[in-house]
Amino acid sequence: MIIKKINSQNPDAEIINGAVEMLKNGQIIVYPTDTIYGIGCDILKQKAVQTIQKIKHRKKQKPLSIICADLKDISRWAMVSNFQYRILKKHLPGPFTFILKASKEAPKILQDPKRKTIGIRIPNHQVCLNLVKELGHPIITTSVNESGKQNYANPDKIKKDWFGKVDLILDAGEINGEPSTIVSLIDDQVEIIRQGKGELNI
Predict the structure, then answer these.
(1) Residue 53 banded pLDDT, cuts 50, 70, 90
(2) Residue 116's pLDDT is what?
(3) pLDDT digits over 89-145, tens only?
(4) Residue 155: which residues within 8 A CB-CB, separation 6 or more?
């Protein structure tokens, strides 16, 4: 496992490039966001996605969300109505996960198997945004924890408990945050699935 200290506001390009190469090779990384630490991989590396599900003890029926680079990028992976776009534009980048209908390009492993939906994030955090922009497509985003258990705020504890489970930790110091607020926008109906960090303003 590799550990790299990284600046949240001005991340070192060499560190970002190294992390991206690892993502391209199907490896799993831990990175800071505007809410809590996330664990992720390249969304096109199915084996890596399955590994994340396994190490988190997460049911396959419970889909994983993705980080997009910008609003334009979202339209590649999800179907966005004019109503939904206005809400996304108002709240992103920010501490929200929006549930939308998945596009044909969205990998099936990331979709809710019944509803054919996908969770989308654009965090207000330069590290993960730079990762996605350099990679050229989204990465998985899910909290660093076993499914249903407490999230991690301290990177030193992540290093201790997740040693051997991940390939890289981007250490930006302690994050005293809370998970994102999850909002479903399916059929242009606004429903808060989980209240976390961030207040929805319609």
Answers:
(1) very high
(2) 95
(3) 999 999 999 999 999 999 999 999 899 999 999 999 999 999 999 999 999 999 998
(4) 30, 37, 169, 171, 172, 173, 174
Count of domains forming the chain:
1
Q: Are strands 168-171 and 2-5 parallel, antiparallel or unpaired?
A: parallel
Residue 92 lies in a domain: yes
Contact 198, 181 (CB under 8 A): yes
- Domain of 132: which CATH number? 3.90.870.10
Q: What residues make up the domain containing 28? A: 2-194
The torsion angles phi and psi of 137, rounded to 5 degrees, stand at -160, 170
| pLDDT grade for 61, boundaries at 50, 70 and 90 | confident
And the tokens for 184? 């479903």
pTM of the shown model = 0.95
